[in-house]
Write a structure and sequence with these properties.
With about 300 residues, this protein is of the alpha/beta class. The protein has seven helices and 18 strands. The strands form four sheets. Strands 12, 13, 14, 15, 16, 17 and 18 form a seven-stranded mixed sheet that branches. The protein has a five-stranded mixed sheet with strand order 1-2-3-9-11. Strands 6-5-4-10 form a four-stranded mixed sheet, with no helix packed on it. Strand 16 and strand 17 form a beta hairpin. The two termini are about 30 Å apart.
Length: about 300
């Protein structure tokens, strides 16, 4: 039988990734990482989404919830399903653990990632570390019964972009009062942090930072080295050139300019033949990420300007 719970969770994560990538992926004030797994002192942390901005970091925890949500005064979470209530782990506490591990990892590598100020090595201690819990837009929230210190972290996915903008507005505004109270990353430091986390090995051994240009989540082989593109075709007319990638209710797809037909942007891995693949957007490029051999191969289509949400 289909694992509907897993499918719902993946759909929610995909929607959150789409909003973050679309609205912040091309903005120089942000760096977006999705499905980030790190290991510190033998402890794994899987961060659904991480926003790096000038003042620090925002951990975004995705939660697929179709019923109601309530949180008691002790911070214990419950969700409803078919008129019954079930306890679930607190995503706020999950994010807190992720932030602790992220801080530890960054501290260990601060000399590689940050520059010096007046000859003194800068660190990560005074940066902002924020938490956002992005739940399904169809979930029901009774905020009157949720403690205020927890409610401030919860947002429906449809309002996620506004939430991120609100949390980062001061850092991006250039206000002098903010600059005096908290340090900000330079553009080069943000690129180094992004590249380091993207390349971080689950074994706990970091890859040395040698290039400040953001790189993709999986190892992408440059076209100059003979990497072929993954070709897709319109399911109706067979067109392969006049296609643009977009995102909709059921994930990424391509639109044919000749017959206006939509075709799912899915493909098996051409390197190992595995069907366990994911489609990913990086700025205007589309990639096929293989979960088996860990290769990332570009699609022969580009992101369309007319993409809909």
């Amino acid at each position: 039988m289909p694992d509907f719970k897993r499918m719902a969770g993946e759909k929610q994560e995909s929607q959150v990734s789409y909003f973050l990538d679309r609205y912040f992926g091309s903005n120089d004030n942000y760096r977006i990482l999705n499905d980030l797994v790190i290991e510190v002192n033998g402890f794994n942390s899987q961060i659904d989404h991480l926003v790096v901005y000038k003042a620090g970091f925002i951990v975004v925890e995705s939660k697929s919830i179709q019923g109601s949500v309530r949180v008691n005064s002790l911070g214990e979470w419950e969700r409803s399903y078919k008129e019954e209530w079930f306890g679930i782990p607190s995503p706020v506490q999950q994010a807190a653990v992720q932030i602790d591990n992220l801080k530890a990892l960054l501290r260990e590598n601060s000399s590689e990632l940050l520059g010096k100020l007046l000859g003194v090595q800068k660190g990560f201690g005074l940066r902002q570390y924020k938490t956002v819990i992005a739940i399904s837009s169809s979930a029901r929230l009774d905020r009157d019964d949720i403690p205020a210190d927890i409610s401030q972290h919860i947002v429906k996915t449809e309002f996620l972009v506004d939430k991120i903008k609100d949390l980062t507005q001061a850092a991006n505004s250039g206000l002098k009062s903010f600059a005096k109270s908290e340090p900000r990353f330079t553009a080069d430091e943000m690129d180094r942090i992004y590249s380091f986390l993207k390349n971080y090995q689950r074994s706990g051994e970091p890859v040395p930072v040698t290039d400040t240009k953001p790189v993709a989540e999986h190892a992408e082989v440059p076209k100059a080295l003979g990497q072929d593109f993954v070709t897709v075709s319109c399911k109706k007319c067979g067109e392969t050139d006049a296609l643009t990638a977009q995102y909709g209710r059921f994930g990424y797809y391509v639109v044919c300019a000749k017959c206006s037909t939509n075709t799912a942007l899915k493909h098996g891995c051409p390197a190992c033949g595995s069907a366990s693949t994911k489609t990913r957007k990086s700025r205007s490029d589309m990639y096929l990420d293989c979960q088996s051999c860990q290769k990332s191969i570009p699609f022969a289509v580009k992101w369309g300007d007319g993409a809909s949400s």
